[in-house]
Design brief:
Layout lengths: L12 H9 L3 H23 L11 H10 L5 H18 L7 H11 L12 E2 L10 E2 L5 H17 L1 H4 L13
Antiparallel strand pairs: 1-2
Length: 175
């Protein structure tokens, strides 16, 4: 029997659920970016000894660290784009998540999450208030932004469980 290993994530599903049902686009973007940032910090802390000594505070710092260790791919592209949208909201006066934002997120995700377009995924019955199994494409732009961000945060958060030990530095005692 061929079973896939289960990865455990520590993302804050309650925060994502609050964002999913919210109509406050600014709050949604801030919550999503924050949770991706926390996931990146947890992953790097698990993989790099004494990562906290770097005193990296921002998602951009964490993403630069991943890239310094030659990590790349859709999960980092999505994280970069969520960070970019957060900065647009903070510095450019943007106040709405648009279909274009979601289109760009989908473009960044590509088929890197499970090999099929991310908006073809479904949200199960009862999850976050879903009354039936629902394709992600049926949700509004805000909700799609949250779903993709939550998936990205979980992918980053579980990286230490999914990469070979030889690519991790946690076996070293000192940097």
């Amino acid at each position: 029997m061929n079973q896939k290993a289960t990865q455990i994530t520590n993302i804050n599903f309650e925060r994502f659920e609050a964002a999913f049902v919210s109509t406050d686009d600014i709050g949604i973007v801030v919550r999503c970016e924050y949770e991706i940032e926390r996931a990146a910090y947890r992953a790097l802390s698990a993989m790099v000894p004494k990562y906290d000594k770097f005193k990296h505070r921002y998602l951009s710092d964490h993403l630069k660290t991943f890239r310094a260790f030659n990590f790349s791919g859709p999960i980092f592209q999505v994280a970069d784009y969520v960070r970019k949208v957060r900065n647009e909201f903070a510095h450019d006066g943007i106040e709405q998540i648009t279909e274009q934002h979601v289109k760009e997120l989908c473009s960044q995700a590509g088929s890197g999450f499970g090999g099929r377009p991310i908006l073809d995924w479904t949200l199960g019955l009862g999850m976050w208030g879903a009354k039936r199994e629902t394709k992600w494409s049926e949700f509004n732009s805000r909700q799609q932004f949250v779903l993709i961000s939550a998936t990205d945060a979980a992918a980053i958060d579980t990286l230490p469980q999914r990469i070979p030990q030889t690519l991790r530095l946690d076996h070293l005692s000192e940097l």
